[in-house]
Design a protein that fits this description.
heterodimer, A: about 150 residues, alpha+beta, 2 domains, four-stranded mixed sheet, 4 strands, about 45% helix, B: about 450 residues, alpha/beta, Ubiquitin-like (UB roll), de novo design (two linked rop proteins), four-stranded parallel sheet, binds flavin mononucleotide, binds iron/sulfur cluster, binds FE2/S2 (inorganic) cluster
């Protein structure tokens, strides 16, 4: 908070919403947003307005692993359509859906600034680049192993 | 080999860390700058001819000299690291691999502008880069290049990293400021310009990452020497992020003296097109700039070799030219479909429109829908003219340039590839299975031999 001048605590809203989402299983519930409003002395509407504007905030529950696959032009030129179709088939879900075991959600996103390393997706904090069907298989297997070990 | 100013040291192992950066001449430009008067630094930047690397190409020195300096009011420097223009991924490279070069540029620029607080507004998805930057900032501070009374100059400076949350529009400078204030990224009506009323209504300079990093070599070698590199008003070096159908996608620093053909085909840069395929088209400056067919890309309408400079890429205006833009260089080979590519861009702009102005909000949605119909075999011939009309009605009729940015790619695609759109409409079934390829070239397409 010291990074903003006095009285400008509203600037902390976007960073704080990121933290709230991380702490709330990857999505922003109404309760989570109300809590943030209280924390920053803002009206709840000011928080909702912002949360609905930015695409990184999930307003519905998501799986433990969120596959955010880029589908914009440069990635499309390098086969992102095929990667998206493959993930759908492999996980048996559509875009925006979550697997029955609650492990995976597939989301398509627009250019993530990795166009030279396409096709690609964001998984948590990091990017997975130069995707192939084999890499997708490996990623899914790895997520399942980690999830099983944590249970 | 062209001259490298930004990436010269990029391959030194460990250059990301403070000690290695310093041992290789890092922070000597900062030492030099702090012996200068701030106004003289602005003067050097003016002399260098440096143009903003974020897309608009506005002269940086001039922008800095417009900054209002009322007594008792803080001034801010805000670095635009939102980098969301499809095809553009150069700022990421600088921040990820040369964070100290970037921090050094930020401190020098803050000193020149008298900004005691500087924010880096970085796109939220670059989450791991935030850690890299914060480490570099902490290291610089521990070494005395940042913080209170830097090098005994009496000048204090703090740099903070602020994450966005997924919104291309926040790359537009006034939307960025709104976002930094904790609001939706709705662009402001200009004037007033940020130089007068910016962050929290205080005078603010917004510059791109590459622009601010370039201040380091400008101070190092002097503005005049920097201006001697390149051609015409395209001075110095420019980072190009190359992607699409090329053998060696990645970040290249060019000195703005090479031709487009050399850039695509030489081993030093993109290394040609994979699998011996031929070049169909290219968007040379990020998704917002006009797409050009191969013949107009390599040679201007006047028959001159097209060069990788601001002027040459724009030669011929929108009728036969394009723009340097952000340096996002997207190459399409002979098997790519221009309709499909344009559709992905239209979807992008619909998704990213902030919705404030109706021509942009409605027009982007409408264009996406029509393009979707054409691509999926449900288009009509009249749709092509309708698309043209919609883009023309958006252009110039909106609060911010996103409207234009959405209109231009569609306009250029129709202008140069109309027969490919018509083919989709006339052959809906075939268009689902096959590609138009290079059929629309009346003349045999230029095949580079380089
Ligand atoms: C829709 C839109 C998106 C933009 N995105 C970016 C961006 O991601 N990064 C950037 O530096 N400039 C972007 N710009 C340009 C900025 O508004 C501004 O001109 C730039 O940050 C100024 O810095 P410069 O003079 O150093 O280029 C964008 C402009 C528009 C209209
Ligand atoms: S042109 Fe589009 S993005 Fe820009 S202010 Fe208007 S609606 Fe928003
Ligand atoms: S288009 Fe996918 S990362 Fe840029």
């Amino acid at each position: 908070m010291a990074r903003y001048p006095d009285g400008k605590q509203k600037s902390a809203l976007i960073p704080v919403l990121h933290i709230a989402q991380e702490e709330n299983a990857g999505w922003l519930s109404a309760e989570a947003m109300d809590y943030v409003a209280e924390l920053l002395s803002l009206k709840p509407i000011e928080v909702y307005e912002v949360a609905t504007f930015y695409s990184m905030y999930n307003l519905k529950p998501v799986g433990k692993y969120l596959f955010e696959v880029c589908q914009t032009g440069p990635c499309m030129l390098n086969g992102s359509d095929d990667i998206i179709a493959y993930i759908k088939e492999k996980l048996n879900i559509g875009v925006g859906e979550t697997t029955a075991d609650g492990l995976f959600t597939l989301k398509t996103v627009e250019c993530l600034g990795a166009c030279g390393y396409a096709p690609m997706m964001q998984l948590g904090k990091f990017y997975k680049e130069h995707l192939t069907r084999e890499k997708v298989d490996a990623l899914i297997a790895e997520c399942r192993t980690v999830a099983a070990a944590n249970n | 080999m062209g001259r490298k100013l930004l990436l010269e040291k990029a391959n030194i192992p460990g250059i990301r860390t403070y000690d290695v950066y310093r041992a290789n001449g890092g922070y000597t430009a900062l030492e030099k700058a702090f012996k200068m008067a701030p106004a003289d630094i602005v003067e050097e930047v003016k002399k260098s001819g440096l143009r903003g690397r974020g897309g608009a190409g506005f002269p940086t020195g001039m922008k800095w000299s417009f900054l209002a300096r009322p007594e008792g009011v803080p001034r801010y420097l805000v670095c635009n690291a939102d980098e969301s223009e499809p095809g553009t991924f150069k700022d990421r490279y600088l921040m990820e691999f040369l964070p100290h070069l970037f921090v050094e540029g930020l401190v020098i620029s803050s000193f020149a502008l008298g900004a005691n607080t500087t924010y880096i507004y970085i796109r939220g998805e670059y989450a791991w880069i935030v850690d890299i930057l914060e480490t570099a900032i902490a290291e610089a501070k521990a070494a005395g290049w940042l913080g209170k009374n830097i090098l005994g100059s009496g000048f204090d400076c703090e740099i903070y990293v602020q994450r966005g949350a997924g919104a291309y529009i926040c790359g537009e400078e006034t939307a960025l400021l709104e976002s930094l204030e904790g609001k939706r990224g709705n662009p402001r009506i200009k004037p007033p310009f940020p130089a007068i009323k910016g962050l929290w209504d205080c005078p603010t300079v917004v510059n791109n990452v590459e622009t601010l990093a370039a201040v380091v070599p400008i101070i190092e070698i002097g503005g005049e020497e920097y201006a001697r590199i390149g051609m015409g008003r395209s001075t110095g070096t420019k980072l190009i992020s190359a992607c699409g159908n090329i053998n060696k996608p990645g970040i290249y620093e060019i000195d703005m003296t090479i031709s487009v053909e050399e850039f695509i085909y030489s081993e030093e840069f993109c290394g040609g097109i994979p699998n011996g395929k031929r070049l169909k088209a290219c968007i040379p400056g990020g998704s917002s700039v006009p797409i050009l067919p191969a013949n107009l890309l390599l040679t201007t309408a006047k028959g001159e070799k097209r060069m990788m400079t601001y002027e040459s890429l724009a030669d011929g205006g929108f009728a036969t030219g394009s723009m340097m833009g952000s340096g996002g260089f997207i190459v399409l080979d002979e098997d790519q479909c221009v309709v499909r590519h344009t559709l992905t861009l239209a979807r992008f702009y619909r998704h990213e429109s902030c919705g404030q102005c109706s021509p942009c909000r409605e027009g982007t949605g409408w264009m996406e829908k029509i393009l979707n119909n054409i691509e999926y075999g449900k288009g009509k011939m009249s749709d092509i003219d309708l698309l043209w009309d919609i883009q023309a009605k958006i252009e110039g009729n909106t609060i911010c340039p996103l409207g234009d940015a959405a209109a231009w790619p569609v306009a250029a695609a129709i202008r140069h590839f109309r027969d490919e759109f018509e083919w989709h409409v006339l052959n809906p079934d075939e268009a689902q299975k096959a590609n138009f390829g290079l059929r629309h070239y009346a003349d045999p397409i230029h095949v580079a031999t380089a």
